[in-house]
Amino acid sequence: MGKPTVLHLGDPIKYNHEVYDGAFASRFDIIRNDALDRASFIEALKSKRNSQPLILPRYGDFSAIFRPHFQTGGEMGQWDEELIALLPASVRIFASAGAGFNWADVDALGRRGIWYANGAGASDEAVSDTTLYMILSVFRNFTRSQLAARTADPAVFTATHKVLATISRNPRGHILGLVGLGNISKRVAVKAAALGMSVRYYDVVRAEEAEEARLGVTFEASLEDLLRVADCVSVHTPLNAHTRHLINATTLAQMKDGARLINTSRGEVVDEEALVAALRSGRLAAAGLDVHYHEPQVNPVLVTMENVTLTTHVGGGVLETRVNFELNAMRNILAVVGEDGGELGEPLTPVNAKVVREHRALIDNYISPSTE
Questions:
Q1: Does residue 56 surpass a pLDDT of 70?
Q2: What are the Cα distances from residue 222, in Å, to 189, 226, 321?
Q3: End-to-end CA distance of the chain, in Å?
Q4: Where is each D-isomer specific 2-hydroxyacid dehydrogenase catalytic domain found (predicted)?
């Protein structure tokens, strides 16, 4: 019996060659996907029977899917039921770079008993630093200052220098509201506290009291309650059916007059048209966006606004993140797939653990029904 197979999507690894050529390659046969559009990939996953004997899928019964770079390996498009239904029963895990997973139906994978593991943790430091930069920028109007300096016009420089001193504020003493309290926003909380900010949060699952005390954060019972008290709201939530347009005309109207909004999560969490209206009306004083609704297209109205800080989805964009995305994807597969292709255990950073466990419980009950 040969080694279990891993289907490698996207570019070759770039950094962790010792692990890839060592523990990873010694346990698995690694094959690269060469079907570089959706139609071809679907055909590669299918088995066919014509007048000849059964033609097996191109990649055989692979045990894991490995996507080490979030910017490549997505040529087949959305991982939906159409693709997932074609996966062989041997697949145990889909391990990918990147913290987001809106491009894959992780629940559908879970209902097949397939783990989905992301790069959680690898980008925490970088994204929290980006959020901190955004906080400073929206309070101090740094984007407007930079734009003025880049005109190289002494009159514009002087006028901007004068006006910003009358409209900018220190973050100290203001309330930062975190929408979601995951690993990234926990780091934001610590860094914002160092600026002298009071930190409150809302999450569908409240943290333990000891964790709240460690972070120095205060829980708000609803999103509405959080929005009403925060001077600056920072969004840290995955994109899914429940969070799309979470920040919209209604929720923006619940924010304080002159509050600030930051989004380093996913563009579609914020209704950008409603955001534009709130900024134009003065309801919001400023916004900072690392992610965009129609990315890579940036909203042309927001581009014209001097009180809006815009970056090119670089929240996690540092070398350390890339190295660890790649490494964590391999570690997740090594944790799950044994030498015989069977399942060793759970991944280090599962996204769909609840659904997978529910699937396993159903199977166990079917195989071993209760005798009571």
A1: no
A2: 18, 6, 32
A3: 41
A4: 78-316
Question: What share of the chain has pLDDT > 70, as a percent?
Answer: 95
Q: Nearest to residue 68, comparing CAs of 18, 9, 7?
A: 9
DSSP state of 12: P
pLDDT (0 to 100) of residue 57: 78
Question: Which whole number is the average pLDDT over 329-358?
Answer: 96
* Cβ atoms of 223 and 251 closer than 8 Å: yes
Phi, psi of 202 (to 5 degrees): -130, 135
**Distance from C-alpha of 347 to C-alpha of 94, rounded to nearest angstrom:** 10
pTM: 0.87
- What confidence category does residue 372 fall into, taking pLDDT thresholds of 50, 70 and 90? very low
Distances (CA, A) of 119 to 22, 48, 78, 149, 188: 21, 35, 18, 38, 18
Structure tokens at 294: 């129609």
Amino acid identity at 217: V
Domains of the chain: 5-122+319-367 (3.40.50.720), 124-310 (3.40.50.720)
DSSP letters for 15-57: S-HHHIIIIIHHH-EEEE----SHHHHHHHH--B-SSSSPBPP
**Predicted local distance difference test score (pLDDT) of residue 58:** 87
Site of tokens 């939530």: 237
Closest residue by Cα to residue 307 from 185, 173, 207, 160: 160
Judge whether 352 and 115 are in contact, CB under 8 Å. yes
- Residues 271, 356: Cα–Cα separation, whole Å: 32
CB 56 within 8 A of CB 330: no
